[in-house]
User: Fold these one by one.
Assistant:
Number 1:
Amino acid sequence: MPIHQSMPRAPGTWPLRGRLLAALAFLVLVGPAPAQIEERREEYPDGSTAKIYHVDGDGEPHGSWVEFFPSGKIRLRAQYRHGQLDGAYESYREDGKRLSERRYLKGEVQKLCRYDADSRPIHVLERSRGELVLKLKGAPDVVLFPRSLAAIRRDLTRIDGAPVLDSTRPYEEEPSLTAPFAAGRPRPDLVAEGRRRAEAYRYLCGLPHELAVDASLTNLAQHAALICCLIGELSHTPPQPPGMPAALYAIARQGAAESNLHQGRSSIRQSVDGYMDDSDDRNFRHVGHRRWILSPRMTRTGFGIVSGFCAMNVQDTSGRGLGPLSLAFPPPGYLPVDYFAGPHLAWHFSWDRSRVRIANGERPRAVLTLLDESYDIVGPIEVEQINVDDEAIGDMPALVFRPKFDAGQCRPGLRVLVEIKGIVMPKKERPIYLVELVEAQNPTTARK
């Protein structure tokens, strides 16, 4: 028979396995020692309390945070967890009335309510199913970010993420600027680069973004660039240069009439940025070049370049189906700063005149509000109301306006809530949207 043996155990001793299990049980029951929490106070010059708050062992806010007015009344109460807002947040006016209430989870605002001086809610946000929603009284809620930032980054990389090409020699076939004149042909890869840039802007504005480069439209655009170069200026109705054959002039004149025209940029891709900027003294009242690129019905285009004169054919209307109810530039949601020209930019809001109308006796206008990092109200932004352009450029009339920003304000983190007044939308919708600037998609090509 097998013999089972065991060593005798001295009184008060445990086998190794038993000791390990006992230690593990202690840790489970007791847990690690809590981090040291320290209370701190800050005072006003007169010695009255300005703040009482708590920090963890790393010096990060943790636990309650209270701020006071010099009068001793509470200005703000919040809860932190290891450096992040987490839980209730309440701010007050000095008369004791509520200014705002928020709730955070791991630093991200989940609910927000801003009150006016009579304690009436004027700005209510709620995060629902991961989306930040603006709650409106008597109107449908507004999702402030139609697409996630991750989706925008991914899609822009696919659409416009190729390395920028060297455009020093932009021709597949050189143009002739003396008799016998010839338009030449732009490099197909540079044309494709311009197409991708235009597609990126259309994508950001929520349009069907894919465009086809049409050889006949590129030929027209190339002739438009040629004739503008020959006359030394941009013109949609250029005169016939001396010595140019009538047949060649007819093509060039048609191309100039149908194209966006640009001078001064070194590449087709950069000319698209120029069309989308469109805020110089000559164009800012209508931003027509931009609106043509954003035409919902455009599906085909062509590009040309001759000695710094660029053209983009934008008159295609082959698209079918119902377009968007409205569109705007800068567009709703996240916008990388390399697709934003700067503080001089004229903004616009367009609408489908068959489904949206101007309210009786009113003139459309834009009301802009600056928001903070939690999407609470900072204050109004002064706006130059430039023009209500009823001409259906790109199939849609438009309101053109320009915010007046402080120096250095137009950088990542800028959050602007836009409301268009004087417009009647179907189903009680209200034209309200948020524009938030984020870091450049391609920092090497971001505008300075």
Note: The two ends are 90 Å apart (CA to CA).
Number 2:
Amino acid sequence: MVETPPELKGGTATKRPKPATLNTGIEIMVPEYITTGEKILVNTTTGEFGGRAD
């Protein structure tokens, strides 16, 4: 993930999504606890966040 707004306090306790731009230029919605630079999984069928990558 290339860019996403910083986590807000209490973000891990809620499931509010925030926009994130991937290195391909695609923008998807991710949970607030995800930070810039993390590797994530994206469902290629739906284009939705699938979880953190190992």
Note: The chain has a mean pLDDT of 86.
Number 3:
Amino acid sequence: MQSTKALPRGRPTGGINQRKLPEHGPGCKTDRTCRRADTQVLLPSAPRHRPSPFLLLAIGCVFSTWACGPTLHEQHNQSPSVAGANWGETSPVSTPLQAPRGGWAVSTQSPTPGPDLGVLEAQLASQCPREEGSLTRVARQILERENGEEPSLNSSEIDFAMRAAGSPHVWPRAWTLRGSPIGEADSVARFKRWLHSDPGPGEIRCGVAVHREQGQPTSIAVLVVNALADLRPVPTQIPPGRWIDLRATSLVELSNAKLVVLGPQGAPRSLPTTLRGQEIFARVRIDRPGAWQLQLLTNVESGPRPVLEARVYAGQQPPARLEDAPAPGEQSVGASSDPIAQLTSMVAALRTAERLTSLHRDSRLDRIAQQHAEAMRATAQLGHDVGDGNPADRLVDAGIVARFNGENVARARSVKGAHRALWASPSHRANLLHEAFTAIGVGVAADQRGGVWVCETFADFGLAGTPHRSSP
């Protein structure tokens, strides 16, 4: 079940949002239902009707559950997908995930036709308005891992598999059932009950895989997304110097759209994006060799969020396996056990590595960030406004005048996991690398599940005010 609620609607700050990041960590309830935590990302919001520009970021958390019976093992993995987001430092070691059989899809697009289905596969797929072939490819990879001796795929692995399969959708959910025997009617009923427990916006799309032994089903995997838009083909490989036209059709009502691009070098950048009715258009020039990440962000009824993503490789082959590299700054933590000091050190080291000016710790921003981290923990909601006002209002209420300000929020297993997840996401990375920011406040609130709620508040005081330095 999802542990976080939708972002409060309130007064929109406009702008864009980012995708989800997951991470895994064990826990257990007394009713024999076990839990595993993941992370999700929502993106920055730009100002609307505000005296100063405004960026917001959020990374949230979802939980997976296992309903453990005597013979059947049912796993619900609400794992929104953001590259690089997993419980890296605590996950069991596994062989790096390989690209699907047959290699990367030649393009990223949706919808994609599905294969011919068996009887049980068709019954499961019929619970969704549409089955997608790219999701079925990933469901098969999930099932292969479930039937092996290695740990289940985590969210960054599912994200990698989806991009390799050519799926542009974000925030997937995985459902698996293992055991013997598996009754077909019972498995369909279980899946239907789980699927409709949290329907979400957009159109539900599924990919289904079933493993059989001696003709009898022994394990099932279904990958589900809430599709908010469909994407016309974006090539996976192109020569450097070419233009790519990104054309998408929204499946829900949108108020704006923005394409964020992360190239092989440099900070992410936002490109002019046209929204006419349900049609979205943007152009990007792939001007150098290397790996490129395209992320389409929009405002939907529940607020800003990512809706589509594609990877493009200019002048090189796509990776054959997932490489989960640490984020800059992770090694700077040292022996400190203070999570706020750890996060502050990682952000400082990251900006130093990127040859950016350091951020001054500001005691007023620290208080605002800590209060919001505690408010998120108290309400079990991840967002920029959980009843305590949006970031702009919170600064005004504290008597702070800033020329430019922004906020990142996250729920993760550790501050290192939150830092890595933020860095892996183009829009979040843009906040971390923003040259305009001169001050930062950091708040971290630990919860009883062993995770942390994180808030980073950024500001540029310019001539509007003088930062209040915090003690190191």
Note: The chain has a mean pLDDT of 78.
Number 4:
Amino acid sequence: MRKGAPVPSLRRWEAGFAAAGADPILRPMQDDLTRLGLLDEEDIVLDEAALSLALLDHPDTDPQPYRDLLDAVAARLDAVGGEATTAWERADALARVLGEEFGFVGDRDSYDDPANADLIRVIDRRLGLPISLSILYVAAARRLGWTANVLDVPGHVLVLVGEDVAPVIVDPFRGGVAVGRDQLGAMLAAMGGGPVAAVRHVAAMPNRAILVRLLLNQATRAEQAGKGRRALTLYARMTAMAPGYGHAWWERARLELIDGDVAAARNSLAAMLEITREPDLRQQVVDMLDALVAT
């Protein structure tokens, strides 16, 4: 965890796992999840972390073939683009290897399928969401020592390849096609507020935020499908992996209340209070805690 970042205590995380119905059989993988929450931001390896998250839902799956596939992607990328020096050359190599040779593209036909945010199923099907595909692109690039980041664009996720001087933006959902300035401007303007206002909301995502986004896609779809317990499990994973992410604690508490577990909801809200510095939000959490104590 970054130095100075306020986070809830490890004991609170473990209590939260118990409240969310942690299965003792899966405990070794849950321990891995807690360790992921303790890693410094720069020590998180995106594809390995995303694979660990997926394994929580596939306890009987041998992870080695998937690790081998990730290694094969990196090896092929090195063979194709190892001599590349410019961002354009590296972006082209990423698109050729991941988009063309390995066939990773966006799932347009069943976009909301939970499998699209599960890295094991993404690798199996060669289909995914923008966030899961972006993880594969960025992780492969970083394995070669290239600079690459997931770019948070309103309504979408892209990949930024290269340094600040002359970077290239690509869209993994469309097979790694390059996104020019005019295309990006149109994409941002379409989200409302005009291109100038929208640009302020475009930023490279930290590693932990990327993984939260991956789980959040699954959680929102689970709740939309009426699977509240599944959504609660996913928010519990978020709070273990990214304990400084307040929204996950709030959503977890909400679902715990729906599930009738007031004690667990209080625990989650107390954890959120520890990391919340914005006065109005702190007051909202305090008011909710007071209301729960009164019930």
Note: The two ends are 36 Å apart (CA to CA).
